[in-house]
Amino acid sequence: MRIGIKIRMNERSVRTSLLVTGAVVLLFSLYKIGVYAWDGYENKKTYEGIRDAYYEEPIVQGAAPKTNPATDQAKPISVAVSSAAAKIPANLEFNAKFADLVKLNEDIVGWVKIDETRIDYPVVQAEDNDFYLSNDVNRKSNVAGSIFMDYRNKVGEANRNTILYGHDMKNKTMFAGLIDYESRWNFENKALIEFDTIYGDAKWVIFSAYTTDSSFDYIKTEFGSDEEFQVFLDTVQAKSLHASDVKVTAKDTILTLSTCSSAYEDARFVVHAVRLDDVR
């Protein structure tokens, strides 16, 4: 009799432990979902505000300075320009439409946009490729991170391969729109990328889109010769899901957009574009 009671008590203890464990797992999962949803909401508000600042008419030098809402003090464009001077070569002119943005964050180096998609974001750059994976454009922790440029690229210089990274968010924000280039229709009809920087504007046309993994070095930035760069260009064009009539040579400069993919473990979805004024 005592043995039977002990067995029942043990069974009850096991069931209780399983229920407690299940409840903890459920609560943790709900917490993670809640954090993800809240960060998504905060992220949306952040970028709505910064788009307003970017797309409004810039103040010309000599005009009345704007007021900084955070401090209620006027801060002229010249201050914003000088604070970003470390990133701007002396022989290049500051792009006035970034004046308000560099006041918010001196890490802002550009803006990327693809018409008829949700890709319409500021581009930041840190001293590594880790910080902006989990921090927004205001340098605040956020699971959506930011769209950021590879730390090895140099704004103001002719980079052969400029690389931008962003998350594939479930709410279709950040670089989730890149996955749509699995569709040939999107590849052909949404092929133009605007990537402007703090020193000038440029347009780029997509010539390759594909899924790969981190074993393929598509984020290579340095090439020992034109021949080496041409091999790289031929390789990424051959990997494309869709054929393109765009001709790319070692005399061109390219833009690479990269995001994670759920296609398989360690998968990446990559889009390459060539600068339009380079195309012959």
From TrEMBL:
Q: What EC number(s) does this enzyme carry? A: 3.4.22.71
Q: What is this protein called?
A: Class B sortase
Q: Which domain of life is it from?
A: Bacteria
What keywords are annotated for this sequence in UniProt? Hydrolase
Q: Name one GO molecular function term.
A: hydrolase activity
The keyword Hydrolase belongs to this UniProt entry's keyword annotation: yes
Q: Which residues form the active site?
A: 167, 260
Q: Under which main EC class is this enzyme filed?
A: hydrolase
